[in-house]
């Protein structure tokens, strides 16, 4: 996937940075490379960390800015998705920031097709088989349009 592409750089991080700071540094780096970040993919646990972060005065640091139902961080829409969690190996979570319109392409070779039917004795057993197909490919054309950051391992 895009999170493990070796050509995509990580987000800059300095000592004492919060996730809010790191995302802002990623936005800056993408803009300096000539792209406009238009989406930030983030695990719900990481978005919760951003929203609930408090300062030393015990007040919330970040005010969630929404446009309709779209949550934003530094004016970039945030998409909460559990797909940013690596459930197979390390349970690490990844934040992916990028210019999705210019940097990547989804090629759709065949529209989704769904077929329902019987196989063997399924008619007698009151069963059906569902076949769903989609032929598509995803490619990163411009790796400089993206930045990734791995947060701490998941606990969910």
SS strand fraction? 35-45%
Shape: elongated
Would you identify the regions where 5 or more consecutive residues have pLDDT less than 50? none
E-strand count: 9
Question: Could you characterize the architecture of this molecule?
Answer:
- Strands 1-9-6-2-5-4-3 form a seven-stranded mixed beta sheet. It has a two-stranded antiparallel sheet with strand order 7-8.
- It starts with 8 loop residues before the first strand and ends with a strand.
- 17% of the residues lie in helices and 38% in strands.
- The model has no long low-confidence stretch (mean pLDDT 84).
- The radius of gyration is 20 Å and the shape is elongated.
- It has helices spanning 19-32, 44-51, 100-103; strands spanning 9-10, 39-42, 65-67, 70-73, 76-80, 92-98, 104-117, 129-140, 146-153.
- With 156 residues, it is α+β, with helices and mostly antiparallel strands.
Please describe the structure with a list of short key phrases separated by commas or semicolons.
seven-stranded mixed β-sheet; 3 helices; 156 residues; alpha+beta; 38% strand; 9 strands
Give a quick rundown of the structure.
The protein has 156 residues and is an alpha+beta fold.
List the helices and strands and how they pair.
Blueprint: E1 9-10, H1 19-32, E2 39-42, H2 44-51, E3 65-67, E4 70-73, E5 76-80, E6 92-98, H3 100-103, E7 104-117, E8 129-140, E9 146-153
């Amino acid at each position: 996937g895009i999170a493990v592409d070796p050509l995509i750089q990580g987000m800059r991080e300095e000592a004492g940075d919060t996730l809010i700071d790191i995302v802002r540094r990623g936005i800056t780096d993408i803009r300096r490379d000539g792209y406009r970040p238009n989406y930030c993919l983030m695990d719900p646990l990481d978005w919760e960390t951003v929203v609930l972060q408090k300062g030393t005065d015990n007040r919330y640091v970040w005010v969630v800015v929404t446009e309709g139902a779209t949550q934003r961080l530094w004016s970039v829409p945030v998409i909460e998705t559990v797909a940013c969690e690596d459930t197979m190996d390390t349970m690490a979570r990844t934040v992916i920031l990028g210019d999705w319109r210019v940097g990547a392409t989804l090629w759709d070779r065949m529209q989704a097709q769904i077929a329902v039917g019987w196989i063997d004795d399924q008619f007698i057993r009151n069963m059906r088989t569902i076949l769903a197909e989609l032929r598509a490919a995803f490619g990163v054309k411009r790796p400089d349009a993206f930045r990734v950051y791995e947060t701490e391992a998941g606990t969910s």
